[in-house]
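Hi F.,

I've been meaning to write this up properly since the lab meeting, where we talked about keeping a consistent format for the predictions we share between groups. The idea is simple: the sequence comes first, exactly as it goes in, then the structure tokens exactly as they come out, then a line or two of notes. No screenshots and no reformatting. I'm using this chain as the first example so we have something concrete to point to.
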Amino acid sequence: MATLKLVVGLGNPGPKYHGTRHNIGFDLVDRLAAGARVDAFARKFEGLLAEVEIEYRRVLLLKPDTFMNLSGRSVGQAVRFHKIDLADVLVVCDDLNLPVGKLRFRKGGSDGGQKGLRDVAAHLGTHEFPRLRIGIGEAGEGQAVDYVLGRFKGAEKARIDDALILASQAVAVWAVQGGQAVMNRFNGPSPQ
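Output, unedited:
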């Protein structure tokens, strides 16, 4: 029997934050759910949870409902309840240090200042879990909060749409072939 996987999209709940740069993790999880024809998420683990099949693998999709900086509570509950190995947990989040639309997959490592990742690591007791970062571009000096809570504009929208398609493919590769295959195929040059 195939191992259960968990894909966590980080973001902030509520219509006020829908479509913001900080919610790119939610956007990817929503896209994965739509592709699997999931009609609704269930409220569980202080978040919204759905189960899908990706390339014949059981995959849980989770959107923590705790706000970005407290995402770890929800992730920790889901991991403990389902006894999921940390190598089978993929956290998807925005990254201010990457150009808009660039993907970067890592099997573990630092949170890079991303407070949602930091909280997940605190609740899992380690930084050693896979993460897929989606570039949202760099904010101006002292403007990070307004920038991440802003929406994509103009040409950025098309780049992010393309990035979400690629990120969906990256999740499928991760679910079937593992992290090394994702790094080899998706950690390429920045989008133009």
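Notes:
The chain has one domain: 5-186.
Residues 11 and 23 are 4 Å apart (CA to CA).

If this format works for you, I'll send the rest the same way.

G.
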